[in-house]
Amino acid sequence: MIPSILPTYNRAPLNFVKGEGCWLIEEDGRRFLDMGSGIAVTLLGHSNPILIEALTRQANALWHVSNLYQVAGQQSLADQLVDATFADTAFFTNSGTEACELAIKMARKYWFDQGDADRIEVVAFEGCFHGRSTAAIAASGAEKMVKGFGPVLEGFTQVPFADHDALRAAVSDRTAAIIVEPVQGEGGIMPLPDVCLKGLRDLCDETGALLIFDEVQCGMGRTGRLFAHEWAGVTPDIMMVAKGIGGGFPLGAVLATEDAASGMTAGTHGSTYGGNPLAMSVGNAVMQTVANEAFLAEVSRKAGALRQKLEGLVATHPDVFESVRGAGLMIGIKCKALNMDVVNAGYDAGVITIPAADNVIRLLPALTITDDDIAEALTRLDQAATALKA
Ligand SMILES: *Cc1c(COP(=O)(O)O)cnc(C)c1O
User: Fold this and answer.
1) How far apart are alpha carbons 320 and 335 in whole angstroms?
2) 50-290 has which CATH code?
């Protein structure tokens, strides 16, 4: 008999009832160090007092009005995002997938309005993840995502990760956009080298194709800059944001330059909940906290400390772990043991990690993680690895 919850997830038998900072707590009081943050979502930790205050203040005032009216908080969050980035304009969504939908629609509409209605193709990278909608799975192209779901939406091709020659060959005068995660998340924490991001920008400038960065997982301070692409010194035309920007409240956004967004006039796109006042209250508070040089410098400092300790862990357990990679507090440990066995051993040791492709476990802790929590994470990961060898 089918469970009353559609069984599309293999869920761990963990029942968290409370969160505090980087800790998750089960009903019986058992505490787990959360190095996953609900997949890079609870950016400022669980039960963050600033976010609770922002959300409850809004909850006591007004929950929802519709985008037919002015929405409290959208203006200030859009202004903050525009001030802090390449973008001239922002649209709010409830998720990364919805941001992907709009990013692709925006790119195609741009070319349609330029009188180039056939210019609809989108080039993506193998191993990418942009969400689970019809367009997002077509962007991925992976068999495990598209198989069984009917005709794959037209116009998407994939090239091998970081293969510039293949990319150049795939881009034509029908290419509307190139879509890329500056650091692949689900694909196994694969940073795209700065030189590739620069090459992508040059290729787009040369051919006119729009450049879409998917910073749903790597953005919002996770790499130690507000957005990961800033390290390479290049900017996209369109960018998808979600996950961390809501700190645990469903929220996403598409940011764009004025030119790239020029086709998106009144009536061309919409969302009932996108930019809802509750989401805006949290988004504004997250943005105010993260878009701050001192905060981001602290992220980099802690990332360096964690990274160094993890290199030591890998050296201590060469039969369990192979190597560490990533950027800032977006870290992948390539495993020699089965990654899911490492994740499960972590549960037993009271530390939460997240599996990814390429036999990797991901560490995506809250950016507010303390030095004590980092030390405790290492103790527990060491316990997990030791238990695996036994
Ligand atoms: C999670 C993720 C998405 C999809 O976001 P949802 O909020 O799950 O729809 C898209 N792109 C990247 C890079 C992601 O990590």
Assistant:
1) 6
2) 3.40.640.10
Q: How far is the CA of 383 from the centre of ligand 1 (A)?
A: 31
> Is-contact 377 351, C-beta < 8 A?
yes
130 CA from centroid of ligand 1 (Å): 5
Domain covering 16-34+293-389 assigned CATH 3.30.70.260 in the classification: no
Tell me the pLDDT tens digit for each residue of 357-371.
999 999 999 999 999
Q: How many residues does the chain have?
A: 390
What are the extents of the domains in the chain? 16-34+293-389, 50-290
Please give the Cα distance from 250 to 92 (Å, whole number). 11
Name the region of 115 (left: φ>0; alpha: ψ -120 to 50; beta: rest): left
Per-residue model confidence as pLDDT tens digits over 28-55: 999 999 999 999 999 999 999 999 999 9
Q: In what order do the strands lie in the sheet with 330-335?
A: 321-327, 330-335, 360-363, 354-356
> Sign of dihedral through CA atoms 134, 137, 138, 144?
negative
Among 181, 215, 217, residue to substitute to test ligand 1 (most atoms within 8 Å of Cβ):
217
Q: What's the one-letter identity of residue 238?
A: I
Q: pLDDT digit string (tens) for 93-121?
A: 999 999 999 999 999 999 999 999 999 99
